[in-house]
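tool_call predict_complex ligand=guanosine-5'-triphosphate
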Amino acid sequence: MSFRSGYIALLGVPNVGKSTLLNQMLGEKLSIVSPKAQTTRHKILGILHRPQAQLLFLDTPGLHLSKKLINKKMLEAALSTLHDADIILHLIMPQGEFKPLDQRLFEEAKKLAKPHWVLINQVDQVAKEKLLPRMEQVQKLWSPDYILPLSAKTGEGVEDLLKLLVKSLPEGPAYFSSEDLTDRNLRFLMAERIREQLFRQLHQELPYGSTVEIEAFEEKEKLISIQAKIILTRESHKGMVLGKKGAKLKSIGQKAREEMEAFLGKKVYLQIFVKVMTGWEKNEAQLKNFGIVE
Ligand SMILES: Nc1nc2c(ncn2[C@@H]2O[C@H](COP(=O)(O)OP(=O)(O)OP(=O)(O)O)[C@@H](O)[C@H]2O)c(=O)[nH]1
Ligand SMILES: [Mg+2]
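tool_result ok
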């Protein structure tokens, strides 16, 4: 059997489960996940190594229309992956209305003549009888190359998807060495773990006006020492991030540190500072600086 490889883009509206699926396929928590929409802000490559194939997954920000610069840039970043992809995985919910961007995604895939697979995710959330009508609806709307029901959370249907992907990828070399999990560096991945806690532990709009930068990452013999900065867009948010007597920040730091230790397999000493930078999310140069714009 010949070796196969290629890029596989994970696309869909916010919260549908793209990052959860990426992690499930990799068997590793690479991308951050939260119940809030628009958790993922950057295009993230996740590499799955199989004996006869290398699958290069691109996790993307959820497709969402907004006038805000940061959201526009996130949408651009997501749609740009269409050009790199050999296969487009379009995730949808098992019930509910489609969004205009679902239709747009289908049209873009067609325009580019790329394989368009529809994944009905979160099937653990609905009764089995609901799946057939959903599949028929998708078939009528887009007649995609495949329609696969699965659950990114439980893993149901995921191995079948992987087998089909391996068969469908073009013949090609291993582009990355066998130890590589991603093209992102550890600083990025650790900053993401703090951002995940901001999404999980802060309310309403607060996480959307925040970002995280790693200022120092120092590997010592027995531990890794990390210094991070949470950047907020408004002074009034600082108190909410710190919480009463600093309790909220402590809890964010604690959980982020546990996640870091699980990923790095080493003890972590984490220090977090909070800084206000007004309007960073409206400034293209800053968005570039934080890696949201390439
Ligand atoms: N029950 C169930 N929940 C799921 C499944 N997949 C994802 N979720 C949950 O849905 C929420 C969103 O998951 P994410 O993986 O962050 O979704 P996403 O598409 O990456 O979202 P954005 O990055 O915001 O675009 C989380 O609370 C997940 O635990 C699934 O198959 N079943
Ligand atoms: Mg995501």
